[in-house]
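@channel sequence for tomorrow's demo:
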Amino acid sequence: MRKIALLVLSLFLAAPVYADIIYYGDGSKSEGKIIKENDKIVVIREVDAGGVVCETEAQKSTILKIIRESGEKQKERVVKIKESRKIKIEKPPKPLPPPKPVKVKPLVVKPVLEPVTVVAKEKPKPAAKVVRNCSYTFSRRENKDITIGDVKMKRREVTIIVSKKIPYEQLKDIFECVAYRELRKARNNLDALWIIVMRKNVDTDGVPSAYGIWAPPGGWDDFLHTRDKTTYRWEYRKIKKWI
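structure tokens (generated this afternoon):
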């Protein structure tokens, strides 16, 4: 079973330099830099399109194959990235010849009878940047697909661990971060997602504190309305008292 720990969210992260690829038996893959490996596990550092850096720990029994990029290819990649960041300085165009003098008739300006007051427009204040809370630790992932006749609904259940200091209101941001990552792993081929929330040092009895469900209008089992994802909605529920 793979275990994923979220590390840093940054808006200034560049494209990853390394391109080691791990292919898993379930058809998914991880691409990044392998930072640790032994007889049982492999840990790879990834950076997704949203700038989220995380480390994925995978058991070797779940890995189909590993493709490592050679040192020479890594050097070539670094050189290409540096070349793409260089600022190209173009030579300024040659100055145009000075225009020929044009005879202009003098203008007769009439005096202004009343003073004109010019009011400067206030510049609009920039909108405050919204910082999304994505602080969670991945714990478990399990597919809960159902098939009824010719209709199949791809569902997934995920368990995450959050700090006990995170307010309940911030779970919405965390749920959206988890949904983005799981949909990317499933190549946008998910019909429902159930996220179970465990609080660190609180849910020691095994009972979760809350959960969130992303599903069709009819809920987790609504397999008749999975085509139009624009009709999907979130359902949140608190199971334990949240302080």
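heads up for whoever presents: The CA atoms of residues 216 and 229 lie 7 Å apart.
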